[in-house]
């Protein structure tokens, strides 16, 4: 099984030496003699099987099977009173959980954009969303992506409750790495170890688990109340390495797809509109089948698809909105019901699921209370102005009057000794060169900035970026997810190879503190 996204390996017919296998999911290739991936180069190492000898001196191949952490100190489920456990959907990945006399909120993104200006909320949050956040006893934030860690939302909460308890996993890159830079005043952030029950009160506890593919960033959570488990796998590609509790009372996960710049933002070579449309269609179907199979394997009592309700609503992203077709939650739920007895819930903002009622009688008309008739479900307007003004403020910043910012920035970024040449082009809204903008080459083999491409053999990428977003990212030392996942770039590459080390560095591994532009201006000016 491929470590990337759990695809199955088959023989690589292009390999004459018989040393590589190919994943059926994304065509990643693994050299089984080294257990390293050949394509994309520099990515994961595949976990090896343990080799042991049996009594006849033959070989045994064993997969390590450590005990499940959630099985420590097991609790038997107790009867739930009606109204004792209620789950209310607010929007995207945000759920408000009433658990006895405690309230817990998942991933509050309720205002503003995510990924610079690329994602906007699909659903209109309930009118009392802010009051609900004020009343929370604790907030869980799964990871640092801005559709889960929304500083505009948290700024609203911090205005009244800066000490609200927030819990995150102990990821390699801290979830709140950019808190100081954000200006949001939060004073009670708790970083907890993975796989350990965190006791809230005598009835309520939770456990945060890491993702098997992105342990440096992604997490998921198990919440247990009176022995009843709620599993939220959020955006994890392989939550907890694929080992998860079975027969939980409620499971929720992402479902939609479309959370990447690939392939919509690519052009040249095979990336025709027809190829992209077919690829997107195939990938969404694979994702749908994977989620349905996962639910069938885990057999939760109830399943809820969430964390995929976003839209590329800014007019300049019309092409992305039309191209980036996402999965329909009802289609997934119908597929699940076709193959299992699992109950499903397609949430609408403000809808509340009463777990006690649903477990006792799934046909109870009060088991799920829908929002009142006439409630606005989908957003039809977004307050673009304030957020775009923040981005536009970077365009005229003094930093960019001096071309030596380029060397300063990429030296700060710290990525080098890799044979890749990238051409960076600042553009307008339509990805045409920005008048007076920068257009330059970066050779990451020696971190030089040549006027022309080097004569040696080298992979090449061209990255066109909207000038407001790239300068905002550069100025504030932000991760390139704002550019790539936010659809603010257009890319070409030759050859057509995904350079995992390069993208992983700029999306996850940039320094935790931004460039020292004040010092830069003193000596460069």
Automatic annotation (TrEMBL):
- Write down the superkingdom of origin: Eukaryota
Q: Which residues form the Rieske domain?
A: 1-60
Please provide, in alphabetical order, the Gene Ontology terms of the cellular component aspect for this entry. cytoplasm
Q: Indicate where this protein resides in the cell.
A: Cytoplasm
Kindly state which reaction or reactions the protein catalyses. Answer: CMP-N-acetyl-beta-neuraminate + 2 Fe(II)-[cytochrome b5] + O2 + 2 H(+) = CMP-N-glycoloyl-beta-neuraminate + 2 Fe(III)-[cytochrome b5] + H2O
- UniProt GO BP: CMP-N-acetylneuraminate metabolic process; N-acetylneuraminate metabolic process
Q: Keywords assigned by UniProt? A: 2Fe-2S, Cytoplasm, Iron, Iron-sulfur, Metal-binding
Give the matching Pfam families: Lactamase_B_3
EC number of the protein: 1.14.18.2
Q: Which residues form a coiled coil?
A: none
SUPFAM superfamilies referenced in this protein's UniProt entry, alphabetically: ISP domain, Metallo-hydrolase/oxidoreductase
Q: Pathway involvement?
A: Amino-sugar metabolism; N-acetylneuraminate metabolism
Question: One MF term in GO for this entry?
Answer: 2 iron, 2 sulfur cluster binding
Name the family.
Belongs to the CMP-Neu5Ac hydroxylase family.
Task: Give a short account of what the protein does.
Answer: Sialic acids are components of carbohydrate chains of glycoconjugates and are involved in cell-cell recognition and cell-pathogen interactions. Catalyzes the conversion of CMP-N-acetylneuraminic acid (CMP-Neu5Ac) into its hydroxylated derivative CMP-N-glycolylneuraminic acid (CMP-Neu5Gc), a sialic acid abundantly expressed at the surface of many cells.
Its name, as the record gives it, is Cytidine monophosphate-N-acetylneuraminic acid hydroxylase
* Organism field: Balaenoptera musculus (Blue whale)
The gene behind this protein is LOC118903280
């Amino acid at each position: 099984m491929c470590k990337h996204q759990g695809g199955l390996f088959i023989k690589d017919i292009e390999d004459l030496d018989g040393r590589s296998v190919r994943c059926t999911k994304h065509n990643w290739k693994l050299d089984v003699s080294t257990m390293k991936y050949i394509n994309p180069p520099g990515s994961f190492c595949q976990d090896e099987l343990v080799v042991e000898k049996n009594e006849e001196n033959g070989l045994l191949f064993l997969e390590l099977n450590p005990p499940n952490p959630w099985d420590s100190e097991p609790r038997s489920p107790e009867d739930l009173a009606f109204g004792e456990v209620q789950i209310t959907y607010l929007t995207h990945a945000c759920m408000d959980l009433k658990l006895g006399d405690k309230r817990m909120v998942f991933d509050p993104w309720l205002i503003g954009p995510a990924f610079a200006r690329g994602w906007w909320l699909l659903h209109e949050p309930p009118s009392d969303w802010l009051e609900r956040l004020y009343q929370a006893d604790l907030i869980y934030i799964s990871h640092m992506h801005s559709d889960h860690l929304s500083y505009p939302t948290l700024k609203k909460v911090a205005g009244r409750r800066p000490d609200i308890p927030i819990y995150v996993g102990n990821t390699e890159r801290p979830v709140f790495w950019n808190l100081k830079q954000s200006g949001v005043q939060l004073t009670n952030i708790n970083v907890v170890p993975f796989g350990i029950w965190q006791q809230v009160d005598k009835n309520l506890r939770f456990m945060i688990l890491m993702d098997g593919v992105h342990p440096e960033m992604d997490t998921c959570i198990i919440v247990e109340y009176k022995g009843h488990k709620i599993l939220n796998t959020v955006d994890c590609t392989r939550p907890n390495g694929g080992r998860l509790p079975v027969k939980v009372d409620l499971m929720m996960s992402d479902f939609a797809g479309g959370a990447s710049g690939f392939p919509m933002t690519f052009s040249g070579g095979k990336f025709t509109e027809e190829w992209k449309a077919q690829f997107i269609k195939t990938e969404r179907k694979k994702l749908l089948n994977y989620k349905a199979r996962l639910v069938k394997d885990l057999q939760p009592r109830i399943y809820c698809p969430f964390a995929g309700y976003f839209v590329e609503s800014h007019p300049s992203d019309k092409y992305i909105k039309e191209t980036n077709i996402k999965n329909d939650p009802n289609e997934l739920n119908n597929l699940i019901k076709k193959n299992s007895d699992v109950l499903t819930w397609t949430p609408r903002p403000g809808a509340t699921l009463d777990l006690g009622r649903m477990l006792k009688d799934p046909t109870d008309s009060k088991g799920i209370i829908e929002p009142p008739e006439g409630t606005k479900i989908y957003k039809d307007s977004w307050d673009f102005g304030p957020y775009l003004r923040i981005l536009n403020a970077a365009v005229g910043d003094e930093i960019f009057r001096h071309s030596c910012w380029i060397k300063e920035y990429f030296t700060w970024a710290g990525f080098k000794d890799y044979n890749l040449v990238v051409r960076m082009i600042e553009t307008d809204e339509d990805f045409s060169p920005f008048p007076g903008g920068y257009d330059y080459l970066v050779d990451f083999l020696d971190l030089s900035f040549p006027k022309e491409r080097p004569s040696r053999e080298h992979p090449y990428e061209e990255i066109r970026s909207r000038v407001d977003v790239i300068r905002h990212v550069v100025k504030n030392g932000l991760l390139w997810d704002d550019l790539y996942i936010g659809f603010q770039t257009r890319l070409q590459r030759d050859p057509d190879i995904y350079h995992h080390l390069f993208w992983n560095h700029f999306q996850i591994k940039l320094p935790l503190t931004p460039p020292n532009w004040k010092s830069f201006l003193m000596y460069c000016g």
